[in-house]
Fold:
Amino acid sequence: MAKITFITSDDEKITLEGTSGSVMALAVENNVKGIDGDCGGVCSCATCHVHVAAEDIQKTGEASEIELDMLELDDNTNEYSRLCCQLEITDALDGIVLQVAK
Amino acid sequence: MKKNCVVIGASHAGVSLAFYLRKEGWEDNIILFDSDPELPYHRPPLSKAYLTSSDDIQKIRLRSAESYKAENIELRLGVTVKKIDRANKSIVLTDNSRQNYDKLVIASGARPIIPPISGIETAKNIFPIRTAANITDIRNALSFSKTKKVVIIGGGYIGLETAASLKKLGASVTVLEREKRILARVTAPEMSNYFQELHSKNNVEVLTAKNVISISYKNNQNIISCEDNTQYNADIIIVGVGIYVNKELAEDASIICNNGISVDETTKTNDSNIYAIGDCSFHYNPHYNRHIRLESVQNAIDQAKVAAASICDKETEYNTVPWFWSDQYDVKLQMVGLSQGYNQIVLRKESGEGTYGDSFSVWYFNDDTLLAVDAVNNAKAYVIGTKFIKTNQKVNREKLADSETILKPVNLID
Ligand SMILES: Cc1cc2nc3c(=O)[nH]c(=O)nc-3n(C[C@H](O)[C@H](O)[C@H](O)COP(=O)(O)OP(=O)(O)OC[C@H]3O[C@@H](n4cnc5c(N)ncnc54)[C@H](O)[C@@H]3O)c2cc1C
Ligand code: FES
Structure:
């Protein structure tokens, strides 16, 4: 079980609880604005871009090469960027704060 | 009184439209109809990861049942629309009941072609791949099959993905393609060759120039006969030879149709209260300056955005560069742009042995205009291609072709 907080582009704060599946799926099921997940989570669309809060970055592990490449589709990518369909929900993510990319 | 936005078809296009309407501020009713009884689901995994899993269809649903409720979106599943009555601004259901609309969105997509092959109606265990029910049937048939012999008619993306998935499930798979090469309509010969080799490496038999002319059923086996007098046995037959557009409702209502339901740049038909989006829409693409119909999730979702904005009286225009993906075995293919009309290609290999290596891309040009990129295990090429196509960037083709040039935008521009 992990508590995950999304901050949307209009500064709405949404905290959700998940047990399994991807962070993208959790966000889409709960209509988190700005996370579309168009490709269904196969790292093909980059519509699930989030910035991980700096203090939480060690919770997520490394992004794969294809994820890093796909992130380049967006202009406002930085070192905290992740495609959240590639983040599996586990206890390790508990308390994480994700800023939805613009 | 509240207005009704009625949607025919609750799949990628229809469902996206409903949620975008709420985002755009539509506060009135939204009612979606779909013949399929299942909660709407993602179609791409049907031939890919979902087919090889034992997951329930819930696992790949587009949204949870609660999210429709939370947004006050009414889903009428297992209900078929049989007529559009424009004069009375209503649709007629198969039980003859009616639903009035103020705005109507046709998101009826497409259905698989079952080709008129002699004997096809008496073949056993023959399935298309379009719905959740098709996958349940295929999984069942495979679990009851002793020989697990599968013949797939059609070597397009869906046929090839299904071949890879069924192979993974332990089937022995033969693909019969009518054209001289697989993926003939959609990619360059280089890509066809690559996928031909990939399947052969994985022990899937992919045969081209095989025109299936009849199917018979004898001794508990389907016998598939081709024009060149060859025959293939199969327990299970999958047909993946393309689709028919679901445009009959529109045609019967005198809505202008072409290769799909004709719409303007705001996805509106010739009736200003009726829109058509997704696989069923025949639309103008400004980037390529021509009318097209696309079968892709990208198109379904992006047109849904445009229709939602237009219904809410916002200024909008459909103008996107199409993209698509396909997963076979552990190979990831990503495509951007429309390659039709190319007169030159550049094959760029990143690394590894042979013509293609482990990662490569095919760049399609018309003279010096970049039209499209097909990238295999090469998201970098896909991303750079996307940016170049969108900005009409000129590319130095010699540098591009040279594997020594590091794949970075600055290195590919003159
Ligand atoms: C196996 C498979 C794999 C695919 N893989 C990919 C991929 O990797 N990438 C990609 O981008 N695209 C892929 N596609 C294509 C993609 O799924 C389609 O482009 C997309 O589903 C189009 O969405 P749509 O909503 O326009 O139409 P559809 O998904 O066809 O939905 C139309 C809906 O309308 C309903 N309907 C039709 N007529 C009526 C009626 N009269 N009354 C009530 N309901 C009606 C149908 O039941 C259906 O649910 C794949 C498709 C398939 C089948
Ligand atoms: S959902 Fe498509 S890349 Fe994450």
Q: What stands out?
A: The domain at 4-40+61-111+244-311 of chain B is CATH 3.50.50.60 (FAD/NAD(P)-binding domain).
